[in-house]
């Protein structure tokens, strides 16, 4: 006689250590196997897109900090790029280089958290996490030097950046850039070829190339599926066309590929920062922009390659001091589109790491 | 002290019971204190592995941290889930905790210094150590929580798989020692059995770390997946009992590894009890090391590993040990150490080629 079994529903989140915030997965399990998944979000919805309609253009910059709060610099950058496109503002040379340096540092910091928490989800009891926080601490210290903040930086301004960097910043940055490659090698030595990690991540949660493109995934999730697409190369903004760097891609699109792509991107970011430091010109860091900016009637879409994917701001102006409409293209929310197809059929333990390998930030998903 | 008690005349009025009672109290105090010590060591050790400090505020070097934790646990509210099975829920921590203490009855701290020199000592250990899993399953069932139920199901699967290689690895030692008594196993180790039984040691170590739910087999309480597993609903002293049980079991397994493979209390210069403690702490340090380094395996991969890797290796190890005991009935010579190391290397290389983990998607 066969024992009758039936699937049961388990609510993973919104309070759960590995949902990286207040994400909720309503999993239907058959034993340990996930047979259905319903993602539930918006627990952190703050109505940012509506909120900004009552703010001036400059006042919106600190609000963008609260989107993806582990990568505020990138959010700042994406927003000011959009505004500058809308109002036709030129940015001084030195400010562009500083922006690139900050954005790449932010990419490293964000990937450190992504990789660390991914490995933590794999069960490596906080050790990689703490190691990566050690280096993130250096980056946060660097950011503190330039803008006095450690999480919500509010550093970019329309037409430049808020301040020039202090003298000791470049010394500290140079030290960091020389040390970072060794740390990345250290992570690889400790875990990249670990038999258990390979068994857990290789071939798990495959996102096929077609599905990745069709679901308009971006960033490391897309590149892990062997699609060579990076806004920095495809549609260069700022001064990215002046640097030499590679776009790392995965081969099959499993969790391991996404993890590897992130680690390789950290190396490439270090490379870009090195070149930017060499080329850094002297001069102004901020062009004259009216505090109450009134861009001409029209619309503009500014996008950058954020740490988690294509981060875009779509702005509509009616020639008033506040935007008529702001729409944000949140890379992590769109990357979640394929979550269902990636998780179905895997065990609950895999569901956690597949979810972790997408690297989401709920501040951005829910807005 | 231990010598003095061991020397108490059994025909002294009530001598047996005095001997028994005093030794039991000493043992209980020793085990609980040692459990606190290894909790402290683990937290500090993992702190160092993770490039942070670990607890260092309570008392000198944070030494009083486990005591502070105990006081905190005692003063916390004890919650019983409304839909839980109350009896099962209440009994579970006790059933999980007591076997961990009972194992120490047969651990020789030095020659003859053990509560009960059973002639089937190691068999007793194997029997008792798996009882605590019943407590864990009861906790998972009684809390009426889906996460804890998943943890409980996993615990049963884990124990069913890992008891077998564990037992087979022990038989290798028993063959060499020619006795099931823990004390005799120690006295027969003129060469520590870790050298004569390297493969057996490895199998025992891995199976034991599954038995006490430590990384990479810690999926009963996998924090990143099922949050805390079986003890998710427990709070206050009941949780503290589970916590203590976990470390008492870890301590017991360390003591058994010391006894079976590392020569127990044997060692030059230092007093035997010190040798015993040093070895126990060293073995525990290896557990801490493993825990802070490796990721966790998936539940089906853990089963695969037990049945396809550990079990055949344990059988081969048993076969080879049997042959060697037949060839050298007077005790194995030194040269066998190198032979066995070579055999272990070849077998492990072979299995690493034959046996691959991975995959595991189920069509739904």
3D architecture notes:
- The complex is a heterodimer of chains A (about 375) and B (about 375).
- Chain A is α+β, with helices and mostly antiparallel strands and about 375 residues long.
- In chain A, about 50% of the residues lie in helices and about 15% in strands.
- Chain A has one domain: Cytochrome-c3 Hydrogenase, chain B (Orthogonal Bundle), CATH 1.10.645.
- In chain A, helix 4 packs antiparallel against helix 11 and helix 5 runs antiparallel to helix 6.
- In chain A, about 50% of the residues are buried.
- Chain B contains 15 helices and no strands.
- Chain B is globular, with a radius of gyration of 21 Å.
- In chain B, about 45% of the residues are buried.
- Chains A and B meet through strand 3, helix 4, helix 5, helix 7 and helix 14 of A and helix 7, helix 11, helix 13 and helix 14 of B.
Approximate shape of chain A? globular
Number of helices of chain B: 15
Task: Label the structural class of chain B.
Answer: mainly alpha
End-to-end distance of chain A: 52 Å
- Between the first and last Cα atoms of chain B, what is the distance in angstroms? 64 Å
> Looking across the biggest beta sheet of chain A, what order are the strands in?
1-2-3
Envelope shape of chain B: globular
**CATH superfamily of chain A, please?**
Cytochrome-c3 Hydrogenase, chain B
Strand content of chain B: under 5%
Q: Cα-atom Rg of chain B, whole angstroms?
A: 21 Å
Q: Which whole number gives the mean pLDDT of chain A?
A: 87
Spell out the helices and strands of chain B N to C. HHHHHHHHHHHHHHH
């Amino acid at each position: 006689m066969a024992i009758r079994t039936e699937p049961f529903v388990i609510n993973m989140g919104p309070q759960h250590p590995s949902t990286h915030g207040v994400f909720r997965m309503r999993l239907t399990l058959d034993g340990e196997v996930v047979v259905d998944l319903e993602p539930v979000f918006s627990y952190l919805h703050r109505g940012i897109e509506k909120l900004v309609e009552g703010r001036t253009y400059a006042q919106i910059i600190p609000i963008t900090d609260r989107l993806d709060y582990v990568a505020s610099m990138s959010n700042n950058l994406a927003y000011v790029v959009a505004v500058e496109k809308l109002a036709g503002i030129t940015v001084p040379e030195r400010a562009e280089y500083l922006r690139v340096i900050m954005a790449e540092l932010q990419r490293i910091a964000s990937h450190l958290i992504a990789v660390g928490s991914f490995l933590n989800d794999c069960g490596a009891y906080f050790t990689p996490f703490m190691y990566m926080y050690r280096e993130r601490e250096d980056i946060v210290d660097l950011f503190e030097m330039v803008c006095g903040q450690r999480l919500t930086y509010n550093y970019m301004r329309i037409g430049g950046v808020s301040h020039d960097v202090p003298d000791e910043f470049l010394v500290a940055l140079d030290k960091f850039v020389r040390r970072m490659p060794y740390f990345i090698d250290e992570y690889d030595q400790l875990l990249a070829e670990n038999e258990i990690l390979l068994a857990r991540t290789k071939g798990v949660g495959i996102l096929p190339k077609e599905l990745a493109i069709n679901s308009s995934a971006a960033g490391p999730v897309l590149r892990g599926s062997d699609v060579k697409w990076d806004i920095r190369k495809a549609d260069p903004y700022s001064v990215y066309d002046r640097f030499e760097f590679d776009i790392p891609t995965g081969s099959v699109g499993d969790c391991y590929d996404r993890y590897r792509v992130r680690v390789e991107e950290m190396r490439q970011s270090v490379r870009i920062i090195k070149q930017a430091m060499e080329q850094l010109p002297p001069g102004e860091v901020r062009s004259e922009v009216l505090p109450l900016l009134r861009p001409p009637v029209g619309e503009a879409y500014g996008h950058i390659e954020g740490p988690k994917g294509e981060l875009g701001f779509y702005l509509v102006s009616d020639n008033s001091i506040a935007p008529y409409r702001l729409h944000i293209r949140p890379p992590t929310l769109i990357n979640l589109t394929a979550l269902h197809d990636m998780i179905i059929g895997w065990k609950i333990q895999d569901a956690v790491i597949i979810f972790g390998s997408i690297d989401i930030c709920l501040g951005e998903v829910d807005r | 002290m231990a010598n003095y008690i061991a020397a108490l005349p059994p025909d002294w009025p009530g001598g047996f019971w005095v001997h028994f009672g005093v030794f039991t109290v000493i043992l209980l105090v020793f085990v609980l204190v040692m459990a606190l010590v290894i909790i402290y060591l683990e937290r500090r050790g993992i702190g160092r592995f993770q490039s942070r400090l670990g607890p260092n505020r309570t008392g000198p070097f944070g030494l009083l941290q486990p005591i502070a934790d105990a006081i905190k646990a005692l003063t916390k509210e004890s919650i019983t889930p409304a839909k839980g099975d109350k009896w099962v829920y209440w009994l579970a921590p006790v059933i999980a905790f007591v076997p961990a203490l009972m194992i120490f009855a047969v651990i020789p701290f030095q020659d003859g210094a053990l509560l009960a020199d059973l002639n089937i000592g190691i068999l007793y250990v194997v029997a008792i150590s798996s009882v605590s899993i019943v407590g864990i399953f009861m906790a998972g069932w009684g809390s009426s929580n889906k996460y804890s139920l998943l943890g409980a199901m996993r615990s049963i699967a884990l124990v069913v798989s890992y008891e077998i290689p564990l037992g087979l690895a022990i038989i290798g030692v028993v063959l060499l020692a020619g006795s099931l008594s823990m004390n005799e196993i120690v006295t027969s180790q003129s060469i520590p059995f870790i050298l004569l039984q390297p493969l057996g040691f490895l199998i025992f170590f891995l199976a034991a770390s599954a038995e006490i739910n430590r990384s990479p087999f810690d999926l009963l309480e996998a924090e990143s997946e099922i949050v805390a597993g079986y003890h998710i609903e427990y709070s206050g002293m009941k949780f503290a009992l589970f916590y203590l049980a976990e470390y008492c079991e870890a301590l017991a397994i360390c003591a058994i590894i010391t006894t079976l493979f590392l020569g127990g209390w044997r060692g030059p210069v230092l007093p035997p009890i010190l040798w015993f403690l040093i070895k126990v702490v060293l073995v525990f340090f290896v557990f801490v090391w493993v825990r802070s380094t490796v990721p966790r395996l998936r539940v089906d991969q853990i089963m695969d590993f037990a049945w396809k890797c550990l079990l055949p290796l344990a059988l081969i190890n048993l076969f080879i040990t049997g042959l060697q005991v037949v060839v050298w009935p007077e005790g194995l010579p030194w040269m066998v150490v190198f032979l066995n190391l070579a055999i272990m290397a070849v077998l492990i290389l072979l299995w690493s080629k034959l046996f691959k983990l991975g995959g595991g998607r189920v069509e739904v």
